[in-house]
């Protein structure tokens, strides 16, 4: 059995170290900008895998949400803590069914994640299908120059604007639909704002970097 926190940290640290190590092998430097963007894109890839699970196992997510709604009413954060404090069999680490608890726990704050008709469900599933491959291409492109810097910048504009815009609209609909009502400000900040906020802040930084890539048509910022 592998504790979920260990699985998550191992995935993020392991793949980020791979990116940074190969970048150092290729260029002889550890570049903070490349490392920071690589780490963010690795985290995004992990979320993409969870979003594929949300798509494939939507019925299981809804069933778990229905089963936990009443028992955890008023203590929704406990459900999240219990799930992320649990363990998964090593053989099931890449099974979509093993990760449905991510979404059924979150659905206690935003029921849309138990409803395939909601904005939240569709923006996250859509994010997985539309950004997984382009994001990996961008991540490896920083090291291996798979295209001109200007073209990589244009690709990045498309990727990171989608992330920022989707997150901004998600925050609007979350509060507009009053999903925060009945939850403490601290739990909303921890479960909702901090988890989604990364896709609000980092893409703004990345968009600025992509504009610089287009203006200079140079990979110097990653060297």
Report the β-strand fraction as a percent range: under 5%
Biggest pleated sheet: 2 strands, antiparallel
Low-confidence stretches are: none
How are the strands ordered across the major sheet?
1-2
What fraction, in percent, of the residue positions are helical? over 70%
Number of helices: 8
* Residue-averaged pLDDT: 95
Shape: globular
How far apart are the termini?
A: 40 Å
**Tally of separate domains:** 1
Roughly how many Å is the radius of gyration?
19 Å
Q: Number of DSSP strands?
A: 2
Strand and helix order: EHHHHEHHHH
- Tell me the structural class: mainly alpha
How would you describe the overall organization of this protein?
- By secondary structure, the chain is mostly helical.
- 73% of the residues lie in helices and 2% in strands.
- A two-stranded antiparallel sheet has the order 1-2.
- Helix 3 (58-68) crosses helix 5 (100-106) and helix 7 (149-176) packs antiparallel against helix 8 (185-216).
């Amino acid at each position: 059995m592998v504790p979920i926190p260990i699985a998550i940290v191992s995935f993020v640290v392991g793949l980020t170290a791979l990116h940074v190590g190969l970048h150092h092998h290729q260029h002889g430097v550890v570049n903070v900008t490349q490392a920071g963007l690589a780490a963010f894109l690795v985290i995004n890839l992990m979320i993409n895998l969870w979003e594929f699970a949300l798509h494939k196992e939507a019925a299981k997510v809804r069933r778990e949400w229905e089963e936990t709604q009443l028992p955890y009413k008023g203590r929704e954060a406990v459900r999240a803590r219990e799930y992320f404090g649990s363990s998964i069999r090593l053989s099931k680490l890449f099974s979509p069914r093993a990760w449905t608890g991510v979404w059924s726990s979150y659905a206690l704050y935003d029921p849309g994640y138990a409803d395939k008709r909601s904005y939240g469900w569709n923006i996250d599933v859509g994010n997985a299908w539309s950004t997984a491959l382009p994001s990996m291409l961008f991540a490896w492109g920083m090291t291996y120059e798979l295209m001109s810097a200007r073209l990589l910048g244009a690709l990045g504009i498309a990727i990171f604007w989608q992330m920022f815009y989707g997150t901004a609209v998600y925050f609007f609909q979350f509060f507009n639909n009053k999903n925060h009502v009945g939850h403490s400000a601290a739990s909303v900040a921890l479960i909702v704002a901090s988890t989604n906020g990364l896709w609000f802040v980092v893409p703004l930084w990345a968009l600025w970097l992509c504009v610089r890539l287009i203006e200079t048509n140079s990979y110097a910022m990653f060297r």
